[in-house]
Amino acid sequence: MKFKNFPIYRIEWVTSIFLIGTALLSLTVVPWFLWTQYHLPVDAVNKVHGWGFVWALFIFYYYATGFGITLGYHRLFSHLSFKAKWPVKLFVLLFGAASFENSAHDWSADHRIHHKHVDEDEDPYDISKGFFYAHIGWLLFRLKPPTPVNNVKDLEADPLVMWQHRYVQWIGAFVGFVMPAVLGYGFAVFNGYTNPGMTALAAFLIAGLLRTVVVQQGTFCINSLCHMIGRQPYSTSHSARDSGAVALLTFGEGYHNYHHEFQHDYRNGVKAWQFDPTKWIIWTLSKLGLTEDLRRVPDTRIMAAELKEKSLTLGRDIDSLAARLDARTRELKAKTIAAAHELAKELATRAESLKEAAATKAEVGHETLSELRGLLNQAANYLETLRRADAGSAA
Ligand SMILES: [Zn+2]
Ligand SMILES: [Zn+2]
Questions:
Q1: Where are the domains of the chain?
Q2: Rounded to an integer, what is the distance from CA 369 to the centroid of its chain?
Q3: How many angstroms is it from 370 CA to the middle of ligand 1?
Q4: How far is the CA of 158 from the centre of ligand 2 (A)?
Q5: Among the residues of the chain, which ranges form H helices?
Q6: Separation of CA 310 and ligand 2 centre (Å)
């Protein structure tokens, strides 16, 4: 977007001042406070006592508000990927509000449009408008007037969700800012510290202010980095990507290519080794009877998607690699090229029959799945061989 076209009349002033203000304070006041505290003599009146408690509170709030968004706003309310008992709902609504990302109602409305119109103009955080826009720009200024909200009727029937929607700013301010200060104060009084106000201030700055900014920037990455960095094993028909590194920043939401293919699955990191703490918590809560009806896409459908995608990319990549090889290398590698094309066809056929099996809920054995996993590895090998030959023929 050109700067002269900057839509000043579309600036969301309250949101912008809050987001930019909290970020600036976290970058200035918080380090300054930590620095001066560090250099104060131990017996100074203004010295904060109870730093261990303050940082423990930061960690608790970091996870509680982060999961409020990923487990609550995202997987529970936007996608209905599992059912939750009221204590879980109440927790994610309280701490979701304290992450200052709007109400669950409005967040879900935006997010459902995002899935329906991903990468299109209607997508509220459309990545084709650039990293900045998808990350935070869409909140700072609205390019278009808001569309009427009509895709969250199910949530509107939930009194707890609507209660949070009505009072979200108050709940956020109380749970997110006032409560850390009160807890810090209480802890200092309980331990007989001379100046409990200073512990309250530290708790407010660290577990309130700084934590808000850290969680916001992390969860905003779901809309930006998750559509830019990583692999696309399940589909290249949209920009969403799988990245373990981004999963670390986003409480497990980094496996976004899978998520856009199978949005009703409560898992984003579907493989056992993938880092998805949100999934682990939903599963643990189900063992405690606090969540139920966890929705999982059957392995056969997941495998069918992987095979189909691999068949498409293998065909495409082999053609472009083969075209780049010099005549002699191409002759030497003719067998590999032909075999890779055969394999691409084979993968497409296997994807179709798996899809049919999934539709009729027919049993597909573990041996078949691991055989197919072998075919995927074979495809990777062919590509690797030709890439090496390409590098050799270019040299
Ligand atoms: Zn997305
Ligand atoms: Zn989603």
A1: 3-292, 299-394
A2: 28
A3: 30
A4: 20
A5: 13-39, 51-67, 86-97, 104-116, 131-132, 138-140, 153-156, 159-173, 179-190, 196-203, 211-220, 244-249, 256-261, 277-287, 299-324, 327-332, 334-359, 366-394
A6: 23
> Ligand 1 centre from 35 Cα, in Å?
39
How remote is the C-alpha of 346 from its chain's centroid?
Answer: 34
Centroid of ligand 1 to alpha carbon of 236 (angstroms): 13
Burial 253-264 (b: 16+ CB within 10 A, else e): bbbbbbbbbbbe
What spacing in Å lies between the alpha carbon of 136 and ligand 1's midpoint? Answer: 14
pLDDT category, 324, cuts 50, 70, 90? confident
pLDDT at 328: 83
Residue with tokens 């390019």: 143
Gap between the Cα atoms of 203 and 209, Å rounded: 9
Share of the chain above pLDDT 70, in %: 98
Q: Which residues is 255 bridged to in the sheet?
A: 242
- pTM of the full predicted structure? 0.90
What's the 303 CA to ligand 2 centre distance in angstroms?
A: 21
Q: Tell me how far the alpha carbon of residue 395 lies from the centroid of ligand 2, in angstroms.
A: 45
For ligand 2, the distance from its centroid to the CA atom of residue 268, given in whole angstroms, is 9
The residue written with tokens 């949530």 in the block is: 155
Query: Which ligand does the CA of 278 lie closest to?
Result: 2
Taking only the tens place, the pLDDT of each residue in 85-137 is: 999 999 999 999 999 999 999 999 999 999 999 999 999 999 999 999 999 99
Residues 15-50: pLDDT tens digits? 999 999 999 999 999 999 999 999 999 889 899 999
- Determine whether 163 is exposed, middle or buried from the number of CB atoms within 10 Å of its CB (0-12, 13-18, 19+): middle
- Predicted confidence at residue 228, as pLDDT, reads 96
> Residue 187 is encoded by which pair of tokens?
């802890």
**β-strand partners of 84:** 291
Residues 6+ apart with CB under 8 A from 226: 240, 241, 243, 246, 250, 253, 254, 256
Quote the tokens at residue 141. Answer: 């200024």
SS3 for 240-275, per residue? CCECHHHHHHCCCCCEHHHHHHCCCCCCCCCCCCCC
Q: Are 68 and 99 in contact (CB under 8 A)?
A: yes
Judged by its nearest atom, the ligand closest to the C-alpha of residue 111 is 2
Task: Considering every ligand atom shown, identify the ligand nearest to the alpha carbon of residue 240 and give its number.
Answer: 1
